[in-house]
Each structure stands twice: as C-alpha cells, then as structure tokens.
C-alpha cells in the first residue's frame, strides 16, 4: 500500500509542476478572465482538458466542475475567481442551453 501511495504522490507532484505536459502550444480564448483561468487551473492540469471537453458542457456542468476542483480536489480558488471562471468557461467553451 505504501508503494501505491508513493506512486500516486509522485504522479500528483509531477502533474502539479507541469512536468508532464507542454502547455506552450495551448491557446485559450482571449478574454479578461483568461489570466485568472491560467493562474487557477494550469498549475494542476493541462488546459487542453477544457478544450477537449467543452463541446459537451453547459453552464451547470462548468459550475459543477469548478466546484469539484475546489471542494474535492482542493484547488485554492477564491469564490470571486470561481465565479469568473464559470462565466468565462460558459461563454467561451460552453454549449448553448
């Protein structure tokens, strides 16, 4: 069990340091909230997840994703930034309702 925990911890550390992905070619939609997105999201996962999954997600889905990242995954995102992220993701990457 300790070996599995060590492996998971190592994978999480690599993911959060950006050592697993080359983010230089990923371009997010340019908007006032883009720096907020990059600052709050790219530290732990690739931004291409947003682009890959966006064609399936409505506002409620983006709200649930941001909430999950904060409450379950422990992302240190303020309430104000979370609201900005949901607005940005819905507007730039969301599916019309």
Structure, explained:
The protein has 97 residues and is an all-alpha fold. It has a single domain (2-93), classed as Orthogonal Bundle (Cytochrome Bc1 Complex, Chain D, domain 2). It contains five helices and no strands. The chain has helices at 2-16, 34-41, 48-53, 59-71, 79-93. The chain is globular, with a radius of gyration of 14 Å. The model has no long low-confidence stretch (mean pLDDT 83).
Relevant terms:
mainly alpha, 97 residues, 0% strand, Cytochrome Bc1 Complex, Chain D, domain 2
Quick summary:
This protein is mostly helical. The protein has helices at 2-16, 34-41, 48-53, 59-71, 79-93.
Oligomer: single chain
Poorly predicted runs are none
Distance between the ends? 45 Å
Number of domains: 1
Q: At the fourth CATH level, what is the homologous superfamily?
A: Cytochrome c-like domain
Count of DSSP E strands? 0
Order of helices and strands: HHHHH
Largest sheet: none
Percent of residues in β-strands: under 5%
Please tell me what the overall shape is. Answer: globular
SSE layout:
Elements: H1 2-16, H2 34-41, H3 48-53, H4 59-71, H5 79-93
Helix pairs in contact: 2-5, 4-5
């Amino acid at each position: 069990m300790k070996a599995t925990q060590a492996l998971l911890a190592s994978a999480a550390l690599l993911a959060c340091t950006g050592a697993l992905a080359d983010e230089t070619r990923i371009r997010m939609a340019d908007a006032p909230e883009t720096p907020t997105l990059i600052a709050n999201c790219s530290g732990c996962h690739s931004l291409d997840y947003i682009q890959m999954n966006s064609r399936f997600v409505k506002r409620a889905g983006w709200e649930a994703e941001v909430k999950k990242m904060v409450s379950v995954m422990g992302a240190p995102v303020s309430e104000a930034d979370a609201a900005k992220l949901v607005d940005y993701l819905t507007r730039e990457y969301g599916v019309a309702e």
